[in-house]
Every structure is written in structure tokens, then in C-alpha cells.
């Protein structure tokens, strides 16, 4: 099993999974893109990670909204309609016989193939490259209760006028560097601060603390516009729980009653320690409640969704 917040059960079927490249289905061993592709060459593109639940892609509208917003922000034409994107997503799932749960699909869109290794988009000579990688990827059984270990890293989430952390881009070196530092420290995930020293987010998930019955998370100014983050904030407020999107420091974290992360893959996952400070040896009552509320919202979302 892999480590970190994306602990999953390996599945040998993924060795021969069918991948969609620009609308064509190819077996995983034969799936290739050009070395001149903008994503490979420069990290020029946007992506989404989406889970299949009860045969439906969960929160798909929100994911496609974010994908199209990101593409527009970097002046990239995706080249197909949302309806066609959804059709392709379900077509590649069907090609793999994926119709229930335990499936994660990575949707990637890059600016296309360049005529020469150069950053200027005007050298792009093809439409956008669209790749869909579906995998049987079930979270490990202990994900809901395993207490994560976090370590604060020196890598910061930067100002939006440098590289906006809200953009779900292919350029992930900032987060990768944070992930490496956390892993070398023996942690599951790196806790990243903003330029002012306040807590921003984790390297691949969002971070929350619980204090005196309230839920705190960052202001959102220096983190990805997270789908699961947004859903958890919504369901908590609907349940009458106070949620504060605000600046807070590591001092608040070390004294928190509970802490947890959110993400598309694992949902809501409890945090046991941060920088060696013990927050809890077992899942707390707020985390357990939010996990139940999240599963209810997830089931409701896919129950209301129609397949193309």
C-alpha cells in the first residue's frame, strides 16, 4: 500500500486499465503522449480527480465548473463541450466495466502539443490534450479512523500574483517539495503555511481544526478551491455547526480539540498529531459526525444525478 493521506488497496486490474486519450481508448501499457505535449514539457494544464459512487461521478458539476474556470483563467480552450466531456468520462468507465464504487478517475487537460520547447502558447500547434485515467482505487479500510501524522514544512503557499494556489494546475512542484519534506520527516502529509505564517492547507488535502465545538479552516486565500472542502463547510453549517474561515496559527493547531483533512479520495480523515504534538489517539466525535454527514451528502448527490 502507498503511504500518506491517499492510502489505498492495490488492485492488479489497474495494470491493464483502458485509458482515454483525446477520445480514443487504449490499454494502459500503450497509453502515450508526445514529449512536446504542454503538460509534459511545462506543466501547462489543469486537472480534476473525481470519484465514482454508486455508478455516478460524485459532485461532477462542481469538478467541471472548476476545470472550465481554471482553463479560462490560463486562456486555454478545452476544445470540447461539457456534455462531450461527461460522455467521454462515462464511456471510459464503461469500457473498464466500472459501474459501482471504489473507482477514481484523473481527468487532465493540457494546452496541447508545441512545435518547439518554449513556454509561449503561440507555439502550440494542436488542440488541447485530454486524458482520462480511471483506476480501481478503494481507500484502505482504516482510512476513516487511522490518525494521520502531519509535519509543518518550510515550503509556503505563495501569493496569487506569483502562482495562484487556487488554480488546480499541472505545475505541482511546490506541493511535491512539501510532500517530500513531510515524508522525510515521517509524516503522512505536509502542513503548509501562507506567506504571513498562518496555516493555509496541506500539500494534497485541506486542513481543519476543531476548537470548543467550532470548526476552523483557513481563509481560503492561499489554498486550492477544494470541492470536498466546500462540501464539508456546507454540510457542517446546515447541521448547525459554526464554521469559521479565518486566519489561525500553529499555536491554535497545537491546542486544538480535533483536526482533520478533506479530499476527494479519502473524504474526511482524522489527524492525530502535528509536529509531534498529540491532538488525539482516536477519531473524535466531530470528525465522526462529519464523516457521516459527508457520506449522506455524497449519496444524495449521486442519487440526483443522471448518466448521459
UniProtKB/TrEMBL annotation:
Q: What is its EC number?
A: 2.6.1.42
UniProt key word Transferase: yes
> Which keywords, in A-to-Z order, does the entry hold?
Amino-acid biosynthesis, Aminotransferase, Branched-chain amino acid biosynthesis, Pyridoxal phosphate, Transferase
Q: What cofactor is needed?
A: pyridoxal 5'-phosphate
What is the reaction catalyzed? L-isoleucine + 2-oxoglutarate = (S)-3-methyl-2-oxopentanoate + L-glutamate; L-valine + 2-oxoglutarate = 3-methyl-2-oxobutanoate + L-glutamate; L-leucine + 2-oxoglutarate = 4-methyl-2-oxopentanoate + L-glutamate
Which segments does the entry list as coiled coil? none
Q: Name one Pfam family in it.
A: Aminotran_4
Q: Name one GO biological process term.
A: branched-chain amino acid biosynthetic process
Q: Does the keyword Transmembrane helix apply?
A: no
Which InterPro entries does the annotation name?
A: Aminotrans_IV, Aminotransferase-like, BCAT-like_C, BCAT-like_N, Class-IV_PLP-Dep_Aminotrnsfr
Pathway in which the depicted protein is active: Amino-acid biosynthesis; L-valine biosynthesis; L-valine from pyruvate: step 4/4; Amino-acid biosynthesis; L-isoleucine biosynthesis; L-isoleucine from 2-oxobutanoate: step 4/4; Amino-acid biosynthesis; L-leucine biosynthesis; L-leucine from 3-methyl-2-oxobutanoate: step 4/4
Q: Which molecular function term from Gene Ontology is one that the record holds?
A: branched-chain-amino-acid transaminase activity
Q: Which residues cross the membrane?
A: none
Q: Which family does it belong to?
A: Belongs to the class-IV pyridoxal-phosphate-dependent aminotransferase family.
Query: What is the role of the protein in this entry?
Result: Acts on leucine, isoleucine and valine.
Q: What is this protein called?
A: Probable branched-chain-amino-acid aminotransferase
Organism encoding this protein:
Qipengyuania aquimaris
Q: What is the lineage of its organism?
A: Bacteria, Pseudomonadati, Pseudomonadota, Alphaproteobacteria, Sphingomonadales
Amino acid at each position: 500500500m502507498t503511504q500518506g493521506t491517499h492510502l489505498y488497496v492495490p488492485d492488479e486490474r489497474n495494470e491493464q486499465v483502458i485509458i482515454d486519450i483525446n477520445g480514443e481508448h487504449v490499454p494502459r501499457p500503450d497509453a502515450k503522449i508526445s514529449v512536446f505535449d504542454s503538460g509534459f514539457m511545462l506543466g501547462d494544464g489543469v486537472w480534476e480527480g473525481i470519484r465514482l459512487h454508486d455508478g455516478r461521478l460524485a459532485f461532477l458539476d462542481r469538478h467541471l465548473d472548476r476545470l472550465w474556470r481554471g482553463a479560462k483563467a490560463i486562456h486555454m480552450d478545452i476544445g470540447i463541450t461539457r456534455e462531450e466531456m461527461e460522455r467521454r468520462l462515462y464511456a471510459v468507465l464503461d469500457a473498464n466495466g466500472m459501474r459501482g464504487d471504489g473507482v477514481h478517475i484523473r481527468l487532465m487537460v493540457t494546452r496541447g502539443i508545441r512545435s518547439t520547447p518554449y513556454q509561449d502558447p503561440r507555439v502550440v500547434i494542436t488542440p488541447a490534450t485530454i486524458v482520462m485515467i480511471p483506476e480501481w482505487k478503494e481507500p484502505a479500510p482504516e482510512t476513516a479512523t487511522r490518525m494521520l501524522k502531519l509535519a509543518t514544512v518550510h515550503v509556503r503557499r505563495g501569493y496569487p500574483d506569483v502562482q495562484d494556489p487556487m488554480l488546480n494546475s499541472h505545475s505541482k512542484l511546490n506541493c511535491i517539495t512539501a510532500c517530500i519534506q513531510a515524508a522525510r520527516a515521517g509524516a503522512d502529509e505536509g502542513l503548509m503555511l501562507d506567506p504571513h505564517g498562518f496555516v493555509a492547507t496541506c500539500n494534497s488535502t485541506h486542513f481543519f481544526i476543531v476548537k470548543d465545538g467550532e470548526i476552523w479552516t483557513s481563509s481560503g486565500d492561499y489554498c486550492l478551491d477544494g470541492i470536498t472542502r466546500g462540501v464539508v463547510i456546507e454540510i457542517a453549517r446546515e447541521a448547525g455547526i459554526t464554521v469559521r474561515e479565518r486566519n489561525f496559527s500553529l499555536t491554535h493547531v497545537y491546542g486544538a480539540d480535533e483536526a482533520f483533512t478533506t479530499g476527494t479520495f479519502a473524504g474526511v480523515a482524522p489527524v492525530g498529531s502535528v509536529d509531534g504534538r498529540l491532538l488525539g489517539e482516536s477519531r473524535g466525535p466531530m470528525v465522526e459526525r462529519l464523516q457521516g454527514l459527508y457520506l449522506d451528502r455524497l449519496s444524495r448527490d449521486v442519487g440526483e444525478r443522471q448518466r448521459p
